[in-house]
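chain below, 245 aa
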Amino acid sequence: MQGLRRVDAPRDPARGFLGTSGIVGQNIPQGTGAAYAAQLRGRGEVVLTFFGDGASKQGAFHESLNIAAVWKLPVIFIMENNSFSATVRTERGGRHAAAGDPLAQKAQAYSIPGVTVDGSDVLAVHEAVAAAVARARAGDGPTLIESLVYRLSAHGNSIAPPGVPLHYPEHEAISKYGAVEEYEAAKRGDPIPRLRAHLVETGALTAEGASAIIAAAQEEMQKAVDFGLQSPHREPHEALAYVYA
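prediction:
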């Protein structure tokens, strides 16, 4: 990730993670601004900004792609097309999807490359992003990448407070559209076990090593959840801290 800046993640500037926003799609113009700063610094940095297919129907998406294309900013717009915009199927909320066209073709309006890739294939994603990074570093501007990856969890999942059982609502594909077979097929295409199988088959990783990585990740996530649940609520007077300079 050296020289790359990602927007839409927990804030950790030292690692290149610039943070996110509670407003859907807001990170698109934020990422574009970060790319402008990177261009001014001239250090070969490239910004990756992630958003869903639903956010690509917002004005901020189009405004950001336009200015990024005009100024040839080093930014890669990664649209995670997970088949649903909240609880509505993608093809019911946009004409491109309804016509069976790839959403990556939205890039044509701004004369920049638009690429559609199998988001569950880690190697294919790496290849597409690497090409976009090379283009950005060469001064040729942004790329829009549409990553086709099915959302496996329901839109409304949440962490329950202590003492309350976790509630996992049924996925919209099943509860709203009755597409049980579609959802089960999507689970079989989960990118994590798919990559694990590839690494083990090619000898890049042992089965034991893969299991150890998963266990370590689960432990790290559980510690973060426990820390959040056990932390005291902030005092009311702290609500405006760091809001104003």
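The longest strand covers residues 46-52. The CA atoms of residues 120 and 189 lie 7 Å apart.
thats it, cya
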